[in-house]
Amino acid sequence: MRKLLEFLIGKRHWFLFILLEAVSLVLVYRNNAYQRNIMFSSANVVTGYIASISGSVTSYLNLRDINKELLERNGQLELQMLDLQDQLDALIADTVSFKGFAPDSAEQFPYSFVVADVVNNSVTHLSNYITVNKGKLDGIVPDMGVVSERGVVGIVSTVSDHFSVIIPLLNPKFRLSCKVLGSSYFGSLSWNGRNTLYANLDELPRHVEFQKGDTIVTSGYSAVFPSGIIVGTVADFEKQHDDNFYSLQVKLATDFQALNNVRIIKNFRQAEQIGVEQEAKRND
Amino acid sequence: MINNLLRSFIYFVVFVLIQVLILNNIHFLRIATPFLYLYFIIKMPVGSSRTQVVFFSFIAGVVIDMFSNTPGMHAAACTLAGFCREPLIRVFMGKDLPEGIFPSYKTFGFGGFFRYVLSFVLIQHTALFMIESLTLFDPLFLVVRILSSVVMTTLLICTVEAFNIESQKSGE
Questions:
Q1: Which CATH number characterizes residue A161's domain?
Q2: CB pair distance less than 8 Å for B72 and A13
Q3: Closest chain A residue to B75 measured between Cα atoms?
Q4: Which residues of A47-66 are buried (b: 16+ CB within 10 A; e: fewer)?
């Protein structure tokens, strides 16, 4: 024991050295944003890689459900196609020389999408984020809209080379312009931070007519989402305090707790639309 | 003992003031800054305990950090350099130095003092600039910065030593 004590006292400059170095490095780390960011970003590469491995394993477990969902969606689309085909046939039969219906072949539909796998997902926090395995190299840029097979998911916030982070509907920072299907008045959808199945649609004018169970879709005013993508259904509603607007509780169509594949929407004309809107504001 | 403390204190105040008021504003060709305050650690008497040297090096680093707004960087580098001070003296001068003398041209000899200062400054500057950049993003520029600062600091310390009245007296 005495030998040990003597040894420790003899080496006390070592302990002092290590202690003071630790203090200095803590000071460096806590007070310098540059050093902290370097440590953080190198850590992020590692966590992203690990998350993508675990995501590729767990994605197999849900294949059965995904398959079923896809079949359902397929069936719906087939029905829709038949319906439209029917209408088209009827129109052609009715008006033999109807030419105005033919679409302009030079007109290009301005949206396309990229399919991505979810590698990290949170639903339990107040501000939730989703990470997917497509990034800058796949043509993803911030502010692109993201949808799942069932409905709207969120919007791309930051991208790295191979990953991007999505702010989903389950994040109070994200507000989405929505309308009741069939009417053209729009309100603003946001999450209140409590239940992952529901969100609130506020500022909807009082004279809009709707019932419980009606479908809520995107309004298409934001250049991020095309109009008419399903967001959810009306679960409940009440008048707001100032009495001129409705506040709706919307049951979200997307099941955020079992999210596997998402589609990231590219809008070729987004930059153009935002540019012309900003110019209009500047000229105002 | 009291005399020694007082002397160290005066050295500390004078050179830290020179450093923060004048030398911190020098960025020669935007790459090199001389760090003269290391002179305070270099001139501590031979044979003072390593605990003492490490502790005072840390204090000097922290004070410089406070003034130059780089929390922890100088402190970490100085602590490392102070820790290496005694082994350096032993390597360059051997063990048979009388205790309590101050490192100077007369006690160490010109070559010995120069080598001691150069290696001390090299250790401190390498640690400092490594902590500051933290990545090897532009290694050539990092090396240029380290070497140019080392040259400036070493030259400045040797110059100050040549004009130091105290070391000329104590050598007699």
A1: 2.40.10.350
A2: no
A3: A24
A4: ebeebbeebeeeeeeeeeee
Q: What is the DSSP letter of A124?
A: S
Query: pLDDT truncated to tens, each residue of chain B (172 aa)?
Result: 677 788 888 888 888 888 888 887 777 777 788 888 888 888 888 877 888 889 989 999 988 888 877 788 889 999 999 999 888 888 888 777 777 788 888 888 888 889 899 999 999 999 998 888 877 777 888 888 889 999 999 999 999 888 887 765 554 3
Q: Is A227 inside any structural domain?
A: yes
On whether any CB of chain B is under 8 Å from the CB of A8, the answer is no
Q: What is the ipTM of this complex?
A: 0.77
User: Residues 6 or more apart from A134 whose CB is under 8 A from it?
Assistant: A114, A116, A140, A162, A163, A164, A264
Tally of domains in chain A: 1
Out of A12, A25, A39, whose CB is closest to B72? A25
Indicate whether A74 belongs to any domain. Answer: no
Which residues on B lie below 8 Å from A27 (Cβ)? 65, 71-72, 75
Closest CA in chain B for residue A37: B134
Instruction: Identify whether A120 is part of a domain.
Output: yes
Domain limits at A140? 113-267
For A12, the closest chain B residue by CA position comes to B51
- A75 domain residue, yes or no: no
